[in-house]
Structure formats: structure tokens, C-alpha cells
Structure prediction request, 223 residues.
Amino acid sequence: MTRGRQAVVFDLDGVLLESEQLWDRVRRELAARAHRPWPAEATAAMQGMSTAEWSGYLVETVGVPGSADDVAHAVIERMASRYAEHVPLLPGAVAAVRRLAAHWRLGLASSSPRRLIDAVLAAGGMRGEFSVTISTEEVEAGKPSPAVYQAVVARLGVPAHGTVAIEDSSNGLRSAAAAGLVVIALPNPDFPPVDDALDLAAARVDRLDDLTPELIEAVLAER
Prediction:
């Protein structure tokens, strides 16, 4: 298979952006202001959900008052405000994107809303490196559904089995694997994926500097 029929797809939160903790903090603050207890499973459950899904979860499961649309707006406004002050790119994020973009077309499959995706890529000077960017709010379901990865590879015009996904969370790993992509795990140390999700990965790296063209070639060759 030629490189023209191959691609690399990045997740955003937890892979290029140190933002999972921020999402969690903002959502918890919203619940705390409403005097709602935070369910033990809530943080992991919402990782990878689309905007409509996690805002509905906050209303229906956590008990945050208001409509899902209102809750989504409140959370996204707070996230945008934090990003306006500082975009928490992970060490090596821009370099990794540019390093792989020199060899393959890149896609982005993110659970962040479009507004935040565009803000982050613009702030990091990475917008031009990605051929396709899709938010889970633009497909029928969030991760662990394969919908967002299926949409990205379809728009890239590459086969799933010739595409590598970089993911950090249980739901993200499951999403990419269910779509048929070759998965590299970059586990989030604060919210590590469970073992059965991690087992879906063809390789594991602990930092973005380890995402090399040689590694991508190796996992694609194994497929």
C-alpha cells in the first residue's frame, strides 16, 4: 500500500491538548454550584461523548439544572474563556503533527465542539497541517461509537486499515478500533484507559516525541 492510501488521525483532548482535567474541572464546578454530587463514574463516562451526549448526561444523570443546550453553552463558554487565556498544548504536540504531516495526510477526530477545535488549531499554528477535522457533534454519535473515525477516513478517501489513530482514552481507543483503524495508544496518566481498551492498540507510546514515522510505518506493516 502506498503512502497516498495511508493517513494518520489524531484525537485532540488528551493527545495534543492537556485538557481532560480542565473539562472535568469545569463540569464538576457546574455540578457543585447546583449542589449536585459528582457520580464516581461520571468523568470516565463523558470522555469521548459528543456535546449533545455529555450535556444530556450532566442534566439527566448528574442532575445539573437547565436544558442540555443551556448546560452545553455554559461549559463551552468556560472552556473557550480558559483557552483564550492559555491553550494547554502538550509538550511535543506541534512538532509531532508537523513531523507526521511531512509523510501522511492528517485527520482529526475530536469530541470537542467545532468552536474549540478551530481555536486550538489556530493557536498552535496547526490548522494547515490537517486535511480533515471532524467533531463528534457533527456525526450521529460520540465515542466509543466509530462514527467520527468512519467519517474522517471517508472524507480523507483512505481505507481504515491503512490509517493510524492516536488515542488516549478507553472510549477513544474503542472508537478507533471499531472503525477498523490501526490504533496507537498514548495513555492519559490522569485518566488511564482500562486494560481491555488498551489491548486494542497495536502499539503504545508514553510521549508525543515517540510518535515517529518509523513507528507509523511499523504498525501499518504489521496490519
In short: The first strand starts at residue 7 and ends at 10. The chain has two domains: 3-18+89-222, 20-85. The two ends are 11 Å apart (CA to CA).
